[in-house]
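Sample pair:
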Amino acid sequence: MVHDDYMLILGSNVYADPVYNLVYKPDMDSEESVPLFTLENCDGSLLLTTEIRDANSEIIAKIDKNKFIQINENFDAEGEIEKGNGLVLKKKDDGTVIFNAKITEDQYVEVTGTFYVRGKKIYISDRTVEINDVPKKTVNGIDMHDTIFVGTCDITITDDGLKV
């Protein structure tokens, strides 16, 4: 890792890689998976690509390499991923933050948000990963926290926990 590469903190663990692909896979026996977000350490900056949907599977926002290419009129977007409070998506009516990607004071990437995939609510943050409000604390079937994973750019959320 070079100086400009950021490590991802997710579910109380740290991941060190130039690219992070976070996907949800409902069935580990299937090839089918749904991308949640991609983060790329690229030329000294951090690039985010994601689609954020509501509980009805309607697109709230599409972000392609840090640029909002689509946003629902009921939501506001502000900021930049590498500055201040980061890239923030929130409801216009009450200010509720739906998604936030930022660099922490100690130079980690922190992504917090709620993703809806096939009727499931997936909440991710630096300290927890939840599916339908149930914490998923295992990585590869083992209860882990405060662990650093290197060379694991593909992170899969399953109904049983995370797989790297």
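Residues 125 and 162 are 13 Å apart (CA to CA).
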